[in-house]
Amino acid sequence: MDKIIIEGGRPLTGEVRVSGAKNAALPIMAASLLTEGWNTFSNIPDLMDIRTTRKLLQSLGVVIEGTSGTVRLNASEISNIEASYDLVKTMRASILVLGPLVARLGIARVSLPGGCAIGARPVNLHIKALQEMGAEVALTDGYVEARAKRLKGAPIYFDIPTVGGTENIMMAATLADGVTLLKNAAREPEIVNLAEVLNGMGARISGAGTDEIRIEGVERLHSVEAEVIPDRIEAGTYMIAAGITGGDIRVMDCNPIHLCALVEKLRDAGMIVEPVDGGVRAAGNGKIRSVDIKTLPHPGFPTDLQAQMMSMMAVAEGLSVITETVFENRFMHVGELMRMGADIHIQGHSAIVKGVSALKGAPVMATDLRASASLILAALAARGTTELSRVYHLDRGYQDIEKKFSALGAGIRRVSGSS
Ligand code: UD1
């Protein structure tokens, strides 16, 4: 298995381009199941999760041209309605084929998902919503099987604003009979991107980006050409990298409006974050003030940047309280950061981070996608060498991460070998 070796202590400078958003590309690719004819999507990132989605859609009969950049998908003939455990186990977002398949074909069988080990992450809200739309759902042998001759529009209230649930049901509702009203819907920019793509296909969706989304079902959708938005989590990770290394970088092709909560916190921590043509300049001066963080659904502070922010707080002046409210088990990076000299205590859903003057390089292990990124950030700021193993987590969600950091002046390289 590959490892990433990092020599810390170099301030990052220069320009980095953000790739397309993984979390927008995945549902958008799944949306192709709703149409006949060729859909063309640009700015698809080159990532393991995209390759998994490709395999999954191909296993259902979707014809796909291209692997990243501009990708064309044709779901004219769906030959299989089952998403198998082998494909689904590595990526929770596979559940996103459930809604489109039931809506288009009246039946779907999808293995219950795996993905990052950051909590129980059930799909009960997806299932309940489909049932409310008239689907018969059975859970057997680790699979969700849903059937409905034609889904019926319905008012749906999500107990929790679930991103995947909102996307799944929004897609399903596009072909339902009547109006579906999603209340307490998630408001993430990726949901807005998906709604725009669906409307481009002829769907009638309004309110995406607010907590109430209205979908008027139509008889059929047509193919579309659309672009995936930039990855705000990748962009945020590079912005934090500038702060933790005392560097000065331009993060290009990113939309700062998608990152308001982070930008606010980085400024509070003493960083300069300012818009520049086509992106954002993020600069630190080597001194980081501690700030408190509480993760929340969008537009709150994103849980997907919690681990990276914790690395920065590990070398800040003072005490920071980081509270995770979205997932119940998302502090697995804490143990690894402590191996690098961080002073962190977990109390329930909060991590109390007492800044230290410097972290020290150490062998560390990636435990999930965003935790891996936090360890890279810590290593970039640390004295000495860090060896990060299990980097396959990282490859699920960050395109060319070591090349991009290397171009910013980091001492980082990937080596092949056993872990
Ligand atoms: C998506 C993102 C992930 C991000 C998360 C929260 C993708 C591919 N992944 O994941 O990177 O960390 O949003 O911003 O877009 N829940 C239930 N029942 C359900 C569904 C969710 O209890 O049926 C709970 C989850 O366990 C979690 C919370 O709701 O505690 C939010 O999960 P959700 O928004 O659904 O996350 P994902 O869509 O899986």
Describe the structure.
Phosphoenolpyruvate binds at residues 22-23. It is found in: Cytoplasm. The modification 2-(S-cysteinyl)pyruvic acid O-phosphothioketal is found at residue 116. Residues 7-404 form the Enolpyruvate transferase domain. Its EC number is 2.5.1.7. It contains 14 helices and 24 strands. The chain has a four-stranded mixed β-sheet. The chain has 419 residues and is of the alpha/beta class. The N and C termini lie close together (6 Å). Helices cover 31% and strands 26% of the residues. The mean pLDDT is 95. Helix 1 runs parallel beside helix 2 (48-59). The chain has two domains: 3-19 and 230-415, Alpha-beta prism (UDP-n-acetylglucosamine1-carboxyvinyl-transferase, Chain), CATH 3.65.10; 22-227, Alpha-beta prism (UDP-n-acetylglucosamine1-carboxyvinyl-transferase, Chain), CATH 3.65.10.10. Uridine-diphosphate-N-acetylglucosamine binds at residues 23, 26, 92-93, 119-126, 160, 162-165, 186, 303-304, 326-327.
